[in-house]
Amino acid sequence: MAKELIVTEGLTKNYGKTPGIIDLDLEVRQGEIFGFLGPNGAGKTTTIRTLLDFIRPTKGKITIFGQDSHKESVAIKSRIGYLPGELELYKKLRGSELLHYFSNLRGRVDWKYVEKLAAVLEFDMSKPVKTLSSGNKHKLGLIQAFMHKPDLLILDEPTIGLDPLMQQEFYRLLLEAKAEGQTVFISSHILPEVERVCDRVGFIRHGQLVDVFEISELKKRALRQIEIDFAEPVSKDDFANLSGIKDISVAHNILSCTVSGSLDAVIKAAAHFTVNNIISREPNLEDIFLSYYGDDNDDAS
Ligand SMILES: Nc1ncnc2c1ncn2[C@@H]1O[C@H](COP(=O)(O)OP(=O)(O)O)[C@@H](O)[C@H]1O
Ligand SMILES: [Mg+2]
Question: Where are the alpha helices (DSSP H) in 52-184?
Answer without folding.
Answer: 73-77, 95-106, 111-120, 134-146, 164-179
